[in-house]
């Protein structure tokens, strides 16, 4: 083993031992409180609680398709946050389908991947199946509602 490789091995061993022993104050200018020289504080604790692999709840029975054809290009807007185009994929008379956002979407709507028309309106879901917004169809053929974060959103042609 070369001298340089030996030093590297000792350095890695020392850093690993230090990290396992909780001595962050010795590494790269970190203070004893876990805050770095760049001014960032310690990381928040990981969330706790039960984790399940159970499937997301689904609506019992067949879904009724929306009274408008969802297939095609729609514009999602949120007051004060702008908007973006979204391409809704669906077959004729479909009650659910896919979403392909074009970019620049407000909030987390860039993660939109699925839509479903349920008894209480249109639900937009992200790539993990979590709801991003629930919207109701208005008389003008436009959907209005709220994102899960509380902000108002609209979807129109």
Description of the structure:
The chain has an 8-stranded antiparallel β-barrel with strand order 1-2-3-4-5-6-7-8. It has one helix spanning 3-21; strands at residues 72-78, 82-89, 96-101, 112-118, 121-126, 131-137, 143-147, 152-156. It folds into 2 domains: 1-39, no CATH class; 72-156, Lipocalin, CATH 2.40.128.10. The protein has 1 helix and 8 strands; from the N terminus they run αββββββββ.
Provide tags for this entry:
single chain; 157 residues; mainly beta; Lipocalin; 2 domains; 1 helix; 8 strands; 12% helix
Low-pLDDT sequence parts: 24-39
User: What's the pLDDT, averaged over the residues?
Assistant: 78
Structural domain tally: 2
Q: So what's the overall shape?
A: elongated
CATH class of the largest domain: Mainly Beta
Query: Count of helices?
Result: 1
Q: Report the CATH topology name of the largest domain.
A: Lipocalin
For the record, the CATH architecture of the largest domain stands as Beta Barrel
Please report the total strand number as a whole number: 8
